[in-house]
Amino acid sequence: MSQSERLVLATRYRLVSEIGQGANGTVWRGHDELLDRAVAIKELRLPGDLSEDDRVVFYRRTLREARAPAQLRTHSIVEVYDVVIEQGRPWIVMEMIEAPSLEQLIERSGPLPPDRVAHIGRRLLDALNTAHRAGIVHRDLKPSNVLLDGDRVVLTDFGLAFSTGSASLTKTGHFMGSPAYVAPEVAAGEKATPRSDLWSLGATLYAALEGRPPFERHNVMATLSALANESTPAPQNAGVLGPVITGLLEKNPTRRLSHARAVDRLERAMAGPRSGRRAPTPRYRMMAVIALIGATVASCGIGATALIVGMMKESPGASPTSPTSRPPGNPARGAPPPGVATSTFAVRARTATCKIFVSVPGNAMTVLADETLPQGDARKYDQPRINAVVYDSSACDVWVNGQQKPQGKPGERQTYTLNRSTGG
Q: What is the DSSP string of 322-378?
């Protein structure tokens, strides 16, 4: 065990193990011995060649990183518990969220399906709205700062956050932020605003859909040059999210989607296509046909009523094998459909609300299914890599690599990232 791992901060926060390292320090798994709970502890390391003035600026930025989310009590922003100065450097104590970042998920599984990206975007809009209403601009929204804990989406790392009530701590001539996700006006030297965060959100959602941000190049200067001089590329996998992404990635901040318009477009996309006129049901379509035939027969001087009654008597009704004619109740569990044993992913509808989204990850995501299965129908997929979403796990029987998964709760959504070689 290293000296750091034996350290107890402020007589209560014990370092347990290292979680990861970044440019500015180390994140530790810790334990709050006073309240007996797990915590995450961010250790910030000061460069050795800092002047005394720079050291003061660093401390002030650290306190600001802690204060920003501490003011923002919301489910979508990481909660900060404490700041400790120990061994000549600051440590930030936060809630422990044992979940992958959006960046890790993209690297592991490739582009995400539009419905999941829509959910992520909606939660991040909530987080930004809370921050912006408090006068705080994040300035570094990117996939590595977004944690995905089941359906919870959490915005983290307010190290570059700027409050309208505080003085700027960024030195003149120093570029701050991540070039692939920074807004064009900020890269050009203008002050960051809430609209800048909305650009970064657009770039983050673009990366989730396409596997990479829109202007990323082989180095920082090339990225900034592309950002300044090239048109924003249209996303290829966005589907109904296209207007949201392009609106957020409008280079002119005055034409960029506002928060309210982004929410409206995103919710419209999540609700699906709308029709001004409801499609007639089979019963009403039949009545319309009968009325048309009746009018035609009457115009020819024939007894329409007798003809219509005869037609209704001769109608055979629904086929006994059609989904709508199946007896109510769930299919029996335990008897898998043919071919399940050799499939990467298989699903069968227990009820008529079994909706699935299945895709193959890669540079260009391939959608295999986006449908609601008729009760009793089954689907199986043999591709070695599969991403699948089951929207109501109580409505579907699911097999992964030949093994049946436990039935979930009503309305519970399950997401599967499968690799046949590793067991998923």
A: SGGGSPSSPPPTT-PPTTGGG-SEEEEESSTTEEEEEEE-SSS-EEEEEEEEPTT-E
